[in-house]
Amino acid sequence: MADKDNEKLPSDKLTPDYGSLLRESAILTTFSALLFGFILNISINPPTGFILIDKIMILVALFSITISTVLFIMPVIYHHLEFPYLDFDKFKKRTHRFTLFGVIPVMITLFLGLQLATRALIGNFTISSILGIIPFALIYVFYKLRK
Fold first, then answer.
1. Of 21, 26, 48, 79, which has the most beta carbons under 10 Å away?
2. What is the pTM of this model?
């Protein structure tokens, strides 16, 4: 009886890989859901100094982070729909694709949040947009220099 419990199907040895992919999804989902909550609160209760462009930017950020949150949740949904997997590589590729596509709206949301904050301090839309690009340009440069 104990031998039967210890016998594992070939797909069972992949369980740690499932776990790492799903834990990564959980962390990203938590981050994006918290950011969604903050942005939702700001969009429902906008500061008195917000002008129309600010309200539009916060609405775009809200939609963007919503898309991102859904994309980060998709690996968990996909896991439950497709389990047990006949092709783990397919699951892994789709999970990575969901994550990569989810990062793009997160970057948009972060840029818009940074742009809104710097515009509130500086008051100039163009300068705040340029300042909002700097962190992303640095990330790109560091990414290219990693080799």
1. 21
2. 0.76
